[in-house]
Amino acid sequence: MPRGTLEVILVSAKNLPNADFLKKMDPYVVLTYRTQEHKSSVAEGSDPIWNESFLFTVSDNVSELKLRFMDKDDFSDDDYLGETNIFLEPVFYEKSIGETVYNVVKEEKYFGEMEAILVDEENHSGSKELIAKYA
Prior knowledge:
The chain is mainly β. Helix content is about 5%, strand content about 55%. It has a single domain, classed as Sandwich (Immunoglobulin-like). It has one helix and eight strands. The strands form three sheets. Strands 3-2-5-6 form a four-stranded antiparallel β-sheet. Strands 1-4 form a two-stranded antiparallel sheet. The longest helix has 6 residues, at about 90-95. The model is unreliable at about 120-130 (pLDDT under 50).
């Protein structure tokens, strides 16, 4: 059963590993909630800035948002840089979660980080909203 709308504002990341040896990396993020998937634009460098917003329909039985950090390659498969899983249940019950740092991990090792502010509030349309700031 739908619970509302989840909004994720992807701002930036930092300290992502450079997967390109001869040029600057071109990172992007694939955001996944259940079967819904959104892809950010391709940014530049290991400290990319996106400032993009994504909407998801939230259900009662799924409480995890997955973010996969990728590096765009022109002549081969894109490189996987790492991922972050954000558990959403606390924000649904607590109404908000203050600034929290999430690590970008790959094979259980640190590969950068992101900072998130999570807010769950009833807006005028009655939907739930989550705002995430990544730094």
